[in-house]
Amino acid sequence: xxxxxxxxxxxxxxxxxxxxxxxxxxxxxxxxxxxxxxxxxxxxxxxxxxxxxxxxxxxxxxxxxxxxxxxxxxxxxxxxxxxxxxxxxxxxxxxxxxxxxxxxxxxxxxxxxxxxxxxxxxxxxxxxxxxxxxxxxxxxxxxxxxxxxxxxxxxxxxxxxxxxxxxxxxxxxxxxxxxxxxxxxxxxxxxxxxxxxxxxxxxxxxxxxxxxxxxxxxxxxxxxxxxxxxxxxxxxxxxxxxxxxxxxxxxxxxxxxxxxxxxxxxxxxxxxxxxxxxxxxxxxxxxxxxxxxxxxxxxxxxxxxxxxxxxxxxxxxxxxxxxxxxxxxxxxxxxxxxxxxxxxxxxxxxxxxxxxxxxxxxxxxxxxxxxxxxxxxxxxxxxxxxxxxxxxxxxxxxxxxxxxxxxxxxxxxxxxxxxxxxxxxxxxxxxxxxxxxxxxxxxxxxxxxxxxxxxxxxxxxxxxxxxxxxxxxxxxxxxxxxxxxx
Length: 486
Fold this sequence. Notes:
Blueprint: H1 16-45, H2 51-77, H3 87-104, H4 113-143, H5 149-163, H6 165-169, H7 172-177, H8 194-218, H9 237-253, H10 255-275, H11 277-286, H12 291-294, H13 297-324, H14 326-347, H15 360-363, H16 365-389, H17 394-422, H18 434-459, H19 466-483
Helix pairs in contact: 1-5, 1-8, 2-4, 2-17, 3-4, 3-8, 4-17, 5-13, 5-16, 10-16, 10-17, 10-18, 11-18, 13-14, 13-16, 14-16, 14-18, 16-19
């Protein structure tokens, strides 16, 4: 694992092999949360946890991330090693995240609800710590792969395309988890989901370790002027913390970046609130509360949505960004998603199940276009920060950005549990009330539509376009030439 310098200049295209290697890391990075979203159904459906308890379990680690994400960003930005600033953490974090993911799902229905609650909470903190150690430097690695405005979008588009396959694969975990032929309960020989979650978690954790390691092994990292790095040592703990807080403050004070974070929080957070509702709507509204009758419809719904994102949303959004600009691509993609959400009122149909696929070509532009555009824009913001501060701080910016994503998830999971309780959803009932089902359907449509609409309003003031970004790069290069920097 040597830290060889890139063979091309910053404005040259990044070799396709490097882009693909980075993309495999994104597959691991997205497979973790995609699997968690599926596995979480077991907490309510099989272990009969109260929805608010499941919401707390999902939200609490994100509060923990409020500390660990910026701290990891500061550490990776200022690390000196023969392997570079990013790769050692990507390697170590992938192992910790994969092992703790497998362990946190070793639950048992025979245990008390409170035992399962605390066991899961403690192991999930270890899991999200490992994910932070991996993901923060991994994301920063992507930001610094190229200095070219459009090349950045292509890097992120390829990475998101590969990563999107996590959402094609993950819905099939529902089939495996509840399949008694694959993971039978050791006592009854039947499947209640708990045994399936225990067994499948080991395979998912191991697979994610291998995928997440690939960038650490094969991706080259950008050399940096080590004189600009701050020393990391126990004796400088307070000075480092002061520098960390100052860096976070500077990042959030950068208005283009603040707009990116706010818009992402709104779009992704509102989507996460209702992401788990699709399973319950299909099972309880379309098929009268019978998972057996629902069969593979929830799985095919998730898989078709992910495939549509891969083959329609991401390529189209990348083309829109190059043709009309990144901000315009964001506005157009989110507008399309609002139309898609609205169609679901008619397309979650009791009589015609296949209609649930109809809104997906529009629906997929919401999340499918979000990270392709926003990660490319964040790389542009890092140039603006370098112009203003003289430092390359992709780690801090990546940490703050993804902390906002996780904050959105935390708020979303808490609100999802509150909403399900408020509308009267009862996990122990064989059939849900008409009011509860109507509440689920309205929430699925209204919440993400409102989030996307407000995000569009926020992004209308974003002004870091191609012309300005190229001017910033020219000023940075001129300053480096004048000072003899690299």
